[in-house]
Amino acid sequence: xxxxxxxxxxxxxxxxxxxxxxxxxxxxxxxxxxxxxxxxxxxxxxxxxxxxxxxxxxxxxxxxxxxxxxxxxxxxxxxxxxxxxxxxxxxxxx
Length: 94
Hints:
Blueprint: H1 21-24, H2 27-52, H3 55-65, H4 67-93
């Protein structure tokens, strides 16, 4: 008995087109992975300083050298959080 199969054409079974690398990557997922890697490297570095016994002296030195920059970053972050919180409260009232 002969089989009566029909050959499928390429139009009836379309293949997924593989996108090139830059189009296939989600930007936010990539940033999330980069931030997680940076935080883990920071944690390892702080642990290394702790085991050498120079963690506090290094933190004090960094604070003295970059006090203005650190305070500016914390001030901007606090201001942004306050504005965001007020916007969320205003939005929930509506």
